Amino acid sequence: MDYMNFVYAALILVGLGIVAVLVITLSYSAVGRRADEVIDPVFSELPGLNCKACGFSGCYSHAIAMSEGLSRPSKCQGIDGKAKNAASEILGLRVEPEDKRLSIVKCAGGDLAKKKFNYSGLADCASAQNYCGGSTVCQFGCLGLGSCAAVCPSGAIYMKNGVAAIDPTRCTACGKCHGVCPRALIVFEPYYSDVNVICSSKYTGEMLREICDIGCMGCKICEQTCKEGAITVTDNLAVIDHDKCVDCGDCAEKCPRKIIVDLKLSSKRVR
């Protein structure tokens, strides 16, 4: 009797082992099919920058998350419209309106801004700001030491004439540059917003003319030029409502200080 119990127990264990092997085999097979049919094709549409702006450790991890319904292509800030649509189709998702973002440096002063002194300390913007409030007279201007460029994972930021500039074709909107700017001069704008004011000054026009050769004077010429009512001057600074702006560029042409720029990205929003 004891012998038969042993045999039955052994058979049960063998049976459970066979079932476990079958389950594992089928699971691996399913994972393999998911990788072949979904994960790898979606991954091929991603930019491969691994900037982590999507909230995942890298592009492949993001592709896995999307295949499991935990994310969407729009979470990737480095993906273009065509690739996003392709990834959405692979995942069986409805193609979404364009919601990509772009980082903009709200300053163009640089070498055109008056200096209080020549800074010679650590080549770091936060350190420069902590030393007597920075070297520029304008407290809204770029400190020009490139801390933002140093942390950019896609090499989209470079220094030009003493001020940070961003290449919109390389920016993934990961936001890392925002965190290192002690004057909060880098902000997100919708990628379709071709026209932008690249100044943060709140000084009056009279005061601004004394400390910077390019900053916004709050003259309201742009406000008067805009037929869409998309520009208002608030606290001596022109502000664009991108929901109203049609990217005609008239304000950029009329601005006497050329502080309004038209990036001409040809990236119109899906309305």
Which secondary-structure class do the elements indicate?
alpha+beta
Helical fraction: 25-40%
Distance between the termini: 80 Å
For the largest beta-sheet, the strand count, sense and barrel status come to:
2 strands, antiparallel
Gyration radius, rounded: 27 Å
Order of strands in the sheet with the most strands?
1-4
Mean pLDDT: 85
Can you describe this structure?
It is a single chain. With about 270 residues, the protein is an alpha+beta fold. It is built from 9 helices and 8 strands. The protein has a two-stranded antiparallel ribbon with strand order 1-4. A two-stranded antiparallel sheet has the order 2-3. A two-stranded antiparallel ribbon has the order 5-8. α1 crosses α2 and α1 runs antiparallel to α3. It is elongated and about 100 Å long.
Question: Briefly, what is this?
Answer:
With about 270 residues, this protein is an alpha+beta fold. Helix content is about 35%, strand content about 10%. The chain has nine helices and eight strands.
Task: Provide key terms for this protein.
36% helix; 9 helices; alpha+beta; two-stranded antiparallel ribbon; 271 residues; two-stranded antiparallel sheet
What are the SSEs and their pairings?
Layout (H helix, E strand, L loop, with lengths): L1 H44 L13 H9 L13 H11 L9 E5 L19 H6 L16 H5 L5 E4 L2 E4 L9 H5 L5 E5 L4 E3 L7 H7 L9 H5 L5 E4 L2 E4 L9 H5 L5 E3 L9
Antiparallel strand pairs: 1-4, 2-3, 5-8, 6-7
